[in-house]
């Protein structure tokens, strides 16, 4: 089975989770996703991650070996963008883990 592309992972998540914003980077083995969804309102981070893993289902275990994610509500995402802008955009250059 071919390794999934970042676009595949993005499609899997988008199919199961309504997202306002969804970005996935990766190399087929390790992925980094930024997921903004109203579904995360009121959920602790671990519950948000479980929600994403549930969206990925069996594919997660079989194909996607390392997924780091930033899970944000629309309000948190807006606040993060504002913080970036307030910092003059400098913070956005250092986002990759």
């Amino acid at each position: 089975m071919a390794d999934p592309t970042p676009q595949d992972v993005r499609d899997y998540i988008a199919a199961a989770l309504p997202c306002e914003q969804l970005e996935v980077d990766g190399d087929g083995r390790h992925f980094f996703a930024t997921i903004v969804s109203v579904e995360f309102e009121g959920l602790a981070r671990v519950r948000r991650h479980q929600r994403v893993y549930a969206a990925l289902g069996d594919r997660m275990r079989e194909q996607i070996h390392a997924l780091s994610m930033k899970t944000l509500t629309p309000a948190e995402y807006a606040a993060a963008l504002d913080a970036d802008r307030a910092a003059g955009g400098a913070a956005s250059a250092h986002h990759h883990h």
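The domain at 6-89 is CATH 3.30.300.90 (GMP Synthetase; Chain A, domain 3). The two ends are 27 Å apart (CA to CA).
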